[in-house]
Amino acid sequence: MTNALLIFNARLLDENIDTPGCILSVGGKIRAVFQGYFTDSKTAENLANSVLQEDGLIQNTRLETFDAHGLTVTPSFIDMHVHFRDPGLTQKEDLNSGLHAAVAGGYGTVVAMPNTNPVISSYEAAKDVMERGAALGLANIFQSVSITAGFEGKDITHLKNLNREEIPLITEDGHEVASSAVMYNAMKIAGEKNIIVSCHCEDPDLAAAARPHRQHALEIMEKWHLPAWGGTQTDMSHIPQEVISEIDTSLTEANQLLMMAEDICTERNIQLARQAGCHVHMCHVSTAGAIQAIRRAKEELSDESADFYTDMADAAYEATEEGRRFQPIPAVEHGFSVTCEVTPHHIALCGTEEPDIRALVNPPLRSEEDRLFIIDAIRNGTVDCIATDHAPHTLEDKAKGAPGFTGIESSYGVCNTVLVKEGQISARRLSQLMSANPARILHLNKGLLKPGYDTDLTLVNPDEQWIVDSRLFCSKGKATPFEGRTLTGKVKAVIISGRKIFES
User: Fold this and answer.
1) Which CATH number is correct for 2-70, 2.60.120, 2.60.40, 2.30.40, 3.40.50?
2) Residue 370 catalytic?
3) Confidence class of residue 399 from pLDDT cuts 50, 70 and 90?
């Protein structure tokens, strides 16, 4: 018996369409997309049955219907950057809690980072994670592999055993490969295998120089019981102003060093990738300098890219409203190409003032100028996708200064609120950033509402307001700088391979 799913009475949204309609899924693939008002279930079912009749499946198909009244159907989100801490750090997160958090956030596919315990530095270790993840029947998971064995910065022989189909991405996330020679040789191997090199761009020496300044601030924060996730919920009325100023001064000094660290290493990795002939992906880009370096590299790739930037400029939002499709800078099958991601927290938060300056994350929250530069880069097409950098910690670890936030369950609400509702981009562009472009980068048959594509769908109410309450998170990590904030845009259901696996 073949399973089919008909979603009707919906708003259909991807990078190309924004229209009322319904979708028929058969065997986990989108079979047909009907545009128009189909509020009556009988009319929609007749359409679906006519397609099933045409395919010779009418007698052996079980058709399930879903009335999506008031909801928007969009391709499920794809997160190229999550930390699930499994194996070895499962007190922070494990596959079960992480994948439940993913679907609650509207994600159908995630790429997990290798900074576990032990570090995932082999095909066998990555395969174990993916098999255990698949057995849960939730979101799809790809496990990335470290660039160097154990993050030790030297041995890259394990890369020769990888293949793109199962391991699309390697990274040293949380670290940087200090040796340019080692990074270059790793990029050459990745280029030959068409595997993406995802770069945590942070010069190690400057990062080390920043560490004492951050540690000094943390010692003061611990003394005064100030959590390292910022937020507006912390009572600071009893803390002397000179204490707050000392914290802010130390963190500002650390963040300035880390800004230089990102800018320098971004330039380095672009140059190495160009010589090695590989696809380099810059993760969690946070500074205007890094954005500018990426934009220059993209413009140099082809005249077409340069024309795209000139034509679109700051008119990206208006162009979308006129029905013009965003043209992402393509990643070539082989050879040098550059893509990049930004995070919801770098889009939404400014890290130079209280309380968010104390929201510790790597890379740090930046200045308002950097934040606005990132949004402009989203508008003009420099940014390819949004990834969460979901980094759960225990509250105890976070209070001691562990960098990172729980973010996968709030990401859509943050991005929809800051980008779409504030008129920076269209809903179609957001779908491209969270679905279509990550699918292209990873070479997945996902990300569009189009016949033949995987039926990985997320149903959202883009107008529903909700208050972030980390106690309700599926993730074990409860530290979020968005605690108590009102967001607009709520995930209501997730369908993976034609099967409903989450409904709020």
Assistant:
1) 2.30.40
2) no
3) confident
86's CB contacts (< 8 A; 6+ apart) are 93, 94, 95, 98, 116, 129, 132
Cβ contacts of residue 217 below 8 Å, gap of 6+? 246, 247, 250, 251, 254, 358
d(CA 410, CA 415): 9
Q: How confident is the model at residue 313 (pLDDT cuts 50, 70, 90)?
A: very low
In the structure encoding, which two tokens stand for residue 83, read together? 């930390």
* pTM value > 0.85: yes
Q: Where are the alpha helices (DSSP H) in 201-282?
A: 204-223, 241-276
Taking the domains of the chain in order of start, what are their residue ranges?
A: 2-70, 76-216+250-445
Gyration radius from the chain CA atoms: 22
76-216+250-445 — its CATH code?
3.20.20.140
Q: Helix, strand, or coil here: 198?
A: strand
Res. 379: pLDDT tops 50: yes
Q: Which of 389, 397, 454, 456 is catalytic?
A: 389
